[in-house]
User: Fold this.
Amino acid sequence: MSDEYVIRAEGLSKKFGKRIALNNLSFAVGQGQLYGLAGPNGAGKTTLIRTLCGLLKPDRGAAFLLGWQMPSTRVRSQLGYMPQDFAVYNDLTVLQNLEFFGRLYNLRRSQIHQRADELLELVRLSDRRRDKVGSFSGGMRRRVSLAISLLHKPRLAFLDEPTAGVDPKLRRDFWDYFNDLAELGVSLVVTTHLVEEATRCSMVGFLIAGRLLTEGTPEDILSQTSTANLDDAFIELQEQGEAVQP
Amino acid sequence: MTSLGIAFNVLRRTLSDVRTMALIVVLPLFFVLLYGNSFSGTYSDLRVIVVNGDNGLVSVRTAEYGRITIAADLGSAFIDALDPNAFTVEVMDDSEAALAAVGDDVWAAIIFPKSFSNAIVNEAIRVGGQQEMKIRGYTATLIPGNPIASPPTTLRIDDSNPLIASAVLEGLNTAFASVLQSQQSALVMESMLDVQPLHEGEIKMLDFTAPGIIGFAMTLITVMLTAMAVVRERTGGTLTRILIAPVSAWQVTIGYTLAFSLIALFQSAELFAASALLFDIRFVGDPGVVALIVVLFAIGLQGIATLISTLSKNEAQAMQFVLFLLIPSIMLSGVFWPLETMPASIRPLSYAIPLTFANSALRKSMLKGLGIQDLGFELAVLGGIAFGTLLLSVVFMRRQAYRA
Assistant:
């Protein structure tokens, strides 16, 4: 693999006690790619994202972002991260949350407000910008979290389950927006446990028990498994994997 | 600027929460009211029983008139001399019943025999030596007699509470000294010693305990607030967001330190003001020096709280760790008991507690008015703790993200 990839992981392994979270996992994401990381709960998606971001140290292997081995402080300003938790201040308003995190990325007040207008329009919270986040439902808080993650126009974004708890229409809008960002050259890694959602990605990786079951474009995977949708493809691959297990 | 932004965010969030604000504003006042009313160091309503069998007659030998008998009701004088603020005196006739009552809400019983005045006066003459005395216009030379065979008075005391027993004994001694002084100055300490209290006796027990209690209140509130806030940030995921931004662990730590040090300063100002206004606590030191002590102490506490938050998985665990700091701070820092009363084997533990040095520095400044030049050791230790824990906080702040 060369550094034309913005994300490169080589032989990542991570254990929590006796549980293997990542099992010698290697993969790469190119610039402007929308990479969907699909798999059931506990497959290792969040661990992989946290390791790539430098929030977890792998037991073995290495991760490189934008050519820098993680953890590195050099890529932080170009990195967007949406954790699976809401990770928002419930006692602040939407705008206050955006202002605080925007300042951490050295954005000027006018820049923050301009981006806030765009992103709150996307997540349909424009009219709630002055409401405290604590009064929001789980899905709404996730939308605030997404807006914060993309506020500083990152080159590379890791979005952990951004569509969980979001209604179908808004979910479709999110995926449209992710594709728009990818077209602008932003690389995105988006995790989802709703495998079918990954059809909206340019690349898909199926993760199970810390291993990449397969990866490719959605079309490649469907053709490889001779299935009609990614849900079926995933089940087929999972069963094949189990069949070859001793 | 990033640190200021983080500090502003912490302050804004802390101050917007009504319950936390109440904790910040009300808890120091609560502390002051409690200790001001409970740690006065003076005793009251100590029940004692006096059986006054004294006949008030004194028989003395004189050179001019031989043995004469004079009236000197010292038993009654003793009862009158007992401090009415400290003692509730009950006079009884039955000695047996009085002695039996001790231990049942009665701290002491004192039995004056029939010859009490006689014994006291003759002992005073013996100790003081031959001397002249005016009796009804005549001058008589008093001749010392033999020492008395045994103490003329019986005192039974309930020593189940050594502090109260000691206070009762001190009160009775004071009353005795007052009675004896009226008879023979040679028997009282003041006639033998030229006592020169350094602070003219102006330092009350409450003044002595106040600096330590204020320091303890700061420890409790600052450590609790900081540890809980950092744990909440971590478990809520916002700390991860902060640490993944282009912000150094230094900037984050300085931001937190700024915010919580400001809160600690506000609270300590409230503690000092309320103590001075409500209980007239002695404060002869330079407020600037006290502020310096408070700031160094608060930074150290904030650092310790950050370390506690690193060790804690959640807020409940943080509270448990806070107790490991608070309990030794109460027991070993010299706030309530002087370090000199602790065994040598325990004392090193006292010197591992920041409150020991904050308490010592605050006492020296508030009670004695000592300046920076006299507080070099305490300020150096507090500064060292502040700097050391700040460094460790930076290291552990980054690890908070890994633990989130």
Observations:
- The beta strands of chain A are 5-16, 19-30, 34-38, 60-65, 68-69, 79-82, 156-160, 187-192, 203-208, 211-216.
